[in-house]
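[step 3/7] fold_predict: job queued, chain A
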Amino acid sequence: MFSLYLDYPPREDEVRIVKETTSAYLPDLGAVLSAQEILDIQGLVRRMPISGELVELAVRISEATRPVRKERAGGDNLSALQHFIQRYVAWGAGPRASQYMVIGAKARAILEGRECVAREDILAMTYPVLRHRIITNFHAEAEGIDSRRVIDEIVREVR
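[step 4/7] structure written:
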């Protein structure tokens, strides 16, 4: 669902990690949630209301990652964003990206104690959902453009 970026831990945390994972230490693990509680939470997320406008936004963002054939886009009348995507993206995100942006946005709204999804929830999901779903091409690599830069352009242009 997500590709999260985690930086290296601070030295003292890394020392603790190495000590605990290379010794006979056995953590005392216990269940935090039951299987039924997990299913209940999943159901709550799915029942969270979201406007059709925000679903459309998630789909427009996913669609914007996809290179399109000129004939499908109306000939040479490509927008600046479409030209950028055509030039630098080999493969864009599929429908699952739209689904995960919506599910993630719903969960975020719940975690923040809100009763409905907001635009910023969808936008907050763009990087973790899309980062690993956009495959850049040789031109992008040669010019130092990665999937984060592609997402930056999309978020700036998609209204």
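[step 5/7] annotate
The first helix runs from residue 11 to 21.
The two ends are 24 Å apart (CA to CA).
exit 0
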